[in-house]
Design goal:
46% helix, two-stranded parallel sheet, 10 strands
Length: 376
């Protein structure tokens, strides 16, 4: 399979998360880190907002990064002109395709949409811009009209179509079928922009790829409106293995995730796939025994691949090998005869404290039993 176009929208979709606002310095730093990882493109924001938003976008464009820099625009000429004013050479134009949005939100009809799209695409192309156009709320759009619209976008001369499942109503089966249908009538690439309202954004994105999508959208930590869109780390790890992409510096994923979490004041859940702190943590005796012998026994990929760290957790479910691991790690000689007693005490303490034990607590417990044994 040809290499996928991987586009991040943390600085646009991600910043639209309620309560999130990045400073100019933060936006520039995030863009640099995304570029260092090797994403194909970065959607950096909406120039028509003006002020600090416009200043940040111009600073990012002036960096001359390897990633393509894309500015987001409403379906208005003044938005396109604002993008041009900051030096943009690539833009996206947001337009809805569902009757729900057209009739109820915009008070317009399908003819208005197609006429407006043609006018805006032709205007943008006359300014020598690379142009992406939306089919917003594609998941609730009549499929026959969606295909008609996509054919018209092709004729207008756009460079890409973005099919956005705006409220996350698709599932992997309907996502595959939709993209299979729309890619069959398009000569230009189609992007999958999947929202996570039903927790299916990652699965839907992968299904869309199998259905023919050549471009995919994501954000760091899955930020975005409501429950966000597909998380960058999950998409990248999946396409790395399933589609054999190897041009990405995945070891920087956790570092970037933590930086964005800090800037957005949105904590990464401990059990978050790929970049969560507990992703490579093991407590169960069987798991610890296995992972200490051969790491891939209970890990699908090594921690260093994504900048993570393996952790052996000491708690109620620990086995004797975890106790030995802690003692050996801290260069403490031990008697095998004491390990079972120490383990029993460690499990009792974990239940009493309702938490895992620190390495120092394990060591202190061992010394306690060692002292009692020697005094006995």
């Amino acid at each position: 399979m040809e290499e996928l176009w991987l586009e991040d929208s943390t600085l646009r979709e991600g910043e639209q998360s309620p309560g999130i606002s990045f400073s100019i310095e933060e936006k520039v730093n995030i863009a640099k880190q995304l570029d260092a990882i090797g994403v194909t493109a970065i959607e950096v924001g909406t120039p028509i907002m003006g002020g600090m938003e416009k200043e940040a976008i111009k600073k990012i464009i002036d960096l001359n990064l390897n990633s393509r820099i894309i500015c987001w625009n409403r379906g208005k000429k003044e938005d396109i002109d604002s993008s041009i004013s900051v030096g943009a050479t690539s833009i996206h134009i947001g337009l809805p395709t569902s009757d729900n949005h057209l009739k109820e939100k915009f008070k317009k009809d399908r003819k208005w949409l197609i006429d407006t799209m043609k006018e805006l695409v032709q205007y943008a192309k006359s300014k020598n811009l690379w142009v992406s156009v939306s089919a917003e709320d594609c998941g609730r759009t009549d499929i026959d009209f969606l295909k008609e619209y996509i054919i018209e976008v092709n004729k207008a001369g756009a460079d890409r179509i973005r099919c956005s499942d705006t409220v996350g109503v698709l599932d992997p089966f309907s996502s595959y079928n939709l993209f299979k249908e729309v890619t069959s009538v398009s000569d230009i690439p189609i992007m999958a922009h999947m929202h996570n309202d039903f927790g299916l954004a990652t699965a839907n994105t992968l299904a869309a790829i199998n259905g023919g999508a050549k471009h995919v959208h994501f954000t760091v930590n899955g930020l975005g409106e409501r429950s966000g869109i597909a998380p960058m780390d999950e998409i990248i790890l999946n396409v790395l293995y399933k589609f054999k992409l190897n041009s990405l510096k995945t070891s920087k994923l956790k570092e970037l995730a933590e930086y964005v979490a800090f800037c957005s004041k949105r904590k990464i859940p401990e059990n978050k796939p790929v970049t969560g702190d507990m992703m490579f943590a093991h407590e169960s005796g069987i798991h610890v025994d296995g992972v200490l012998k051969i790491s891939d026994a209970f890990e699908p990929y090594p921690p260093e691949l994504v900048g993570g760290e393996r952790k052996i957790i000491i708690g109620k479910h620990s086995g004797s090998n975890a106790i030995k691991y802690v003692l050996e790690k801290n260069s403490i000689s031990y008697s095998n005869n004491l390990i079972s007693e120490v383990l029993a005490e460690v499990r009792t303490l974990a239940i009493t404290y309702k938490r895992n034990l620190t390495e120092n607590e394990v060591i202190d417990t061992y010394y306690k039993f060692s002292k009692e044994h020697n005094n006995g």
